[in-house]
Records
---
Amino acid sequence: MSFDRGKTTITLINGQCFVWNSKQARFLREELRIVGTLCGSLPRAPMQNTHLGLPLQLMPEEVTLLLEKGLAEVVENTEDVITEEMKLEYKNKEKKSYKRQVELYTRERQEEIKRKLPQIIAGKKAKRNKVLDERRKNGEIIDDSEFEKEIEMTVEDVGIPTLQEASMLMEIPLACDPSTTTPVLVKWTYPKSDKEVLRYRVFRDLWDKGHYLTSGSKFGGDFIAYPGDPSRFHSLFIVVCKPHSASISGIELITMGRLGTNVKKTIVLSSVDENDKLCYTSLQWTGIS
Amino acid sequence: MPDGSWIQGKQIEKFHEEREKVLAEPRVQKKCDYVHGLWTNESRLVEIEHEGKSFWKNMGFTRNGRKFLHPEEALFLMEMNVLQVWYNFLPMSIEGAYCRFLGPTLTLEFHQVYAHLRRMGYVVIRHRGKLASRYEREIGLDKYQKKKERQLGDPMTSSLLTKKNSIEELAQMEGLENCVTDKMCEHEKVAGEEIVASENSQIKMDCAASIEKAHSQETEIGGNEEMGSSLILQSHMNSIKDSAECLNDNVTSLSPVDDNILTTFKHSDATNSAFSSESRNASGFQYKSSAWDFRKIAFPNFGAECGDVIKIQRSESNLTPGHVVCELDCYDFNRMAHINKKKDKKKDLERDRKLKFSNNNSRFSSYQNSRNWSEYKVCLYNWRSNNWRQDQFPHLFADGLQPLVRPELATSTEAILQQLQVIKSSTKPPRNSKADPPAVLPHFDVYSPNKKFKKTNPGTPDFRVIVMRCDESPPDLKTISDIDVYFDDDVPLHCAVVDAGTVMFNTLSFFTLPTEVSLG
């Protein structure tokens, strides 16, 4: 099965959507303002939570938007039946990798030896002279010219131990090997319920207006809207989706207003009105006493 | 705010460039440095060939002599570049691991919370159930569970996440618990009354146990050990607040113990059965009462003998271990040769005694003849109330309006506060060690980074974690209070809410309203 390589591949695993490619992750954020959440550990510094690595987990709204724009496809990985050839192929691959590593290792060592050849020769000379000195002390007659003799040496004369197979480098790959798994397109059904439809409408509208949107659960809302890339700018709005006719209790109003003030953001109540138009209401704590 | 300037655009571009580079970094390692594991779809576990030094201390478990890792552990280790997992003779990628590992035994949220806590350095294990009751912890019995639990392997493998299986889960847990309590009973037999005796409130038992210990040891090693144990006894006495004053009475209060021993041990039986009755019913374990008849054993009477040398009669041969033979009929035990060998220390002790007790002799003499600890306490109380009579401050108690705290009740800061308290602060349900397991159990037990951590005997966790999705509702307050009552160990319960890859923690904890205490 062949896919459009220009599209971002979104893998559906257990109902959640992931992007596994760093180029695609960058493309989504830089060009499409789709932020997502990194949720793996960073290979360089795995024991911390401030900077995380791939995979990039996407909100369902983000996936629907990308699909509507025709910029992505949702796939599910299905295992191929593992044949003997595949196993053999892997073995060969590993062997090839080993051979290549041995080559590279040897070459690197040679370069190093070449750089350090003068030191090596000086060292050898010193060692020889020490032995000669010792023999002279013991009564042997050794000509002074023996001490001055040069040692002829080339790079090849220095032995290089071969790279052990156990110490060859291996990699834990991030994404699946395309030769052993087949991605299958799946149908994406979000949004389904009324609440989901409302959330998606709001998401889409705000995205169209140029905002960067992330999940709002950190601040108790549906989304958080950033004016620019979240790495450089603070968000200004907490978006809360409410059905147009749903009543809001006084206590809820106070809760939201207080929260918005405390985090210096504006609460945006968003809904779809009778004319099927999106309607935004901002809520702020006025502090009149 | 974004202003569309060239410099801002450049900065952001640079950021994206670097980010892409960092994200694209591979996980590379020498082949020999990897631990290799095998994934099996059926067990949904990863079997490892050899234990990695770095992680085996606080991860994985052994079953039938084979070493396994839970999928979340394996996935975390793969991300840490430590473990290479093989499936069908092919190495697994991290994406492949996500595809295979996530399923009925591991949800994504579960893994994300696990990895989040692990990355912070915490030791995270799947919830093990209730390991020990409050009483068991207080007397240190929770440190005595060993092999059996290890053999059980992993009690929670299959039922971890599915709430439907909770009945099964509970059954398993109960099994575990029984086993643990069983274990403890066994240890009890070995450690004997000594452990029980460490409870301060039961000083009587203290004396009895120490004396018994002293007795069994005397024939074995002579007087040396014995004096040691009577020193223990003294230190027991010391550890109780009032007992410093009681050192004089020590001698007198010990002598009647002989008579009381039988009742004392009955008492200890009762306490034992209090905490093990639950499991005993289930497992059919019967607690054996002591085979020793203490009425027939002649204990050396340290209290009555006043001199420095005490004569100790040879005990009956059936009380000594088989290989020990008593040659003499009577041993001379020089008290002064064993106690306080350093002379200056002895002087200090003597001086202290004089300082403390010489002035109070009149006060103590009235109840010098109290026969045991409780009688002494009663005496002390009576003395206090007699000596602090209202008529010392008659003007205060003359009217209808009287002080809230009577002088005779002011025995400690706590007692005063108790008197001053208008509203009872207890809103918590009463502690009940037999509480039923709650409907929802925590998912993880979390421990602070700790070198001494043992996965076979993890001890009391630093906090427990319940994992939930953003769109799920958390357990209701009743369930949470049930959990609190069930575990009965004041370990905070955290609720980890996961939404689209972000993990947020909230703590749910019961607390009593603080009482202000000013000392002085």
Note: The first strand of chain B starts at residue 27 and ends at 30.
---
Amino acid sequence: MTHDTSAFSRRRFLQGSAVGAGILAAPAIVSSQALAASGTVNFVGWAGYPALAEKVFPAFAAATGIKVNFKELPDQETMFAEGKVALEAGGVDVLEPAIDRWGGWNSNGLLGPWDPAKLAMDNYLPGLADGSAGERSRADGKLMYVPSNWGTEALVANEANAKLSSPPSLGDLFNPENSAVLRPHSTLAAMGRWLDATGKLPRPWMDGYTDMAAMTELWDIALAEAIKAKGNVVQWWSGENEANAGFTANGATIGLNWDSTGYNLRKDGYKYIAPVEGAFAWHQGFVLMKNATNVDEAHEFAKFVSTPEGSAMWAAAFSSNAVGKGSAEFVDPEVAAYYGGTFDDAALAKLWWWPEQSAEFIAKRSEYADKYKAA
Amino acid sequence: MQDLLRRYGTGLTTLFCLLVAFWILVLVILPNFSMLFESFFPYLPVAELGGPKDVFTLQNYEKILANPIQTSWFGLPITLPIHVSTFVDTVFFSALVTLMTLILAYPLAYFLAKIASPRSIPTLLLLLFIPMWVSEALRAFAWYIILTFNGPLNALLKALGIIDQGIRWQNGVFSSYDAIVIVLTYCYVLFMLFPIYTSITSLDTNQIEAAEDLGSPWWRTHLRVVIPHAKPGIASGCVMVFMLSAGSLLVPTVVGSTKANWFPQTIYAWFNDALDWNTGAAYSMIFLLVSIIFVILAMRVFRVKLSDIAK
């Protein structure tokens, strides 16, 4: 089989199956177009945050008359898969990935640009949609991503039983006296950053995110160290439920988890602590599908989540932080107090934003996560 | 076909055939064919599809032989590629699950078919079926709760004074796959029970009595009379339980220990963590092929034909 004919038949095959998928999906396409006239937006977002459907979407509908068709998915990988299917079958307008992920989605041809004129770019808090974050939201000068909320991944620790160093460090996750709830890939990054901070790496950990040769060199070291400390891992998590069960049902004393996990466990004797190396921080937002049918409604939707009230509600649903100016007065005082307890100004200044990760990096990263899991 | 036409007429028969053809072609053959096809091409961004890099390749299949790790089998250290090791574990522990379900199901099937009074059969079958009314996801999660460190099993054993320190059952006492084996056995035991029950029911009770009259001890009656008759049922039960266990994604994900890796989880990781659908497809094909070979070999060894199982 020569290269030319194989590529040719592959295209033919894909075209054929796309036509087939189109016919099968015809009812969905027809109905989504029919719905577009009455003002809807098809949104694919995160599962496990019921306040979105209970509070935010009704408020959005009340403000604009636009109904949100919400499809809940557990993680970004599943969202990407959904988007890839929707590229052929339609039916998705807006998705909600993290800022370090949309680049990979875009290079897969999923995304179309936002029109800043239809949004209100002045609504966003400084540093979230401008500056370096603003640069990272654009491709070829076009705005591809607008923020929806942001948050952190740091230590969740049992107040009574976790053995913490002073000040608390990412290294506490690998203390054999603690039992830990971890997820493989961020744990390897935590190990890398801890080794970096204690001067045990031959070059800066950040080099791995830009140079694949440095990546394998550094991740090999982090993997070997993490495997040595693996005995204290009692539960893997990939979503909110597993993380929570790891602490409550499996009795873990420490974990590297999202802030929402810490918030949900705050009354069960757990604290959310920023490590001395700085908490991992993520930035999440809306992207527009290239073949979105409800483009104006999608812009209205993203704009609503930049208003003081909308952004506060969105952040409250995720127990995370709002992106809109003036959102502070709408934030639940309990949530505000919770974050104030973890992040003083020094901890905020140390936030470690997840760097951009290419498709090649992510493939390699999951290889390391795989080895760590199997060890 | 003639029989079908005579009984249902042209219209209904055509409908039946079309529906069956749709099922097999669109829901089984085409998706698998598309996976097979994609498994021979590299994972590329959409923009590079059809470009110079988009060529026929075996590299997705070669990946299963990459990344050797140190592991051990029954205490013997051995170096294997990481995914081959996962694969071997999956096949081994699925076979173990099959054996466990067989040990549990055979006596029960015999009891139901030959010993229990016919009047109590509907009640007994209902009792066996009730757990099946709950979804597999919930049953797996219930087992997760039972086996957790702060779970009811540890609480009970502590209250009875049998243990004073909680045991991490999920991480395994004998191997890191204990929890998976327990829960898969629980989930799939009925798939073993019913084929065996059906085949033992068709055995003439006189044959068992004749064996006993001729002085055969109970174990020889089973070995020479009941088991040979029930072999097709045992074989189809084994094939079903083995394939279901080896292909299970949900149970290993929910109850698996931090050291266990089930091959479907590896496939899932290729699709959903690495976003490399092509390699995921290649792994699926390898898994499908080797599982089929394994089942055919097992059928050869036990001298069962496919037509026996279909009955």
Note: The first helix of chain A runs from residue 3 to 36.
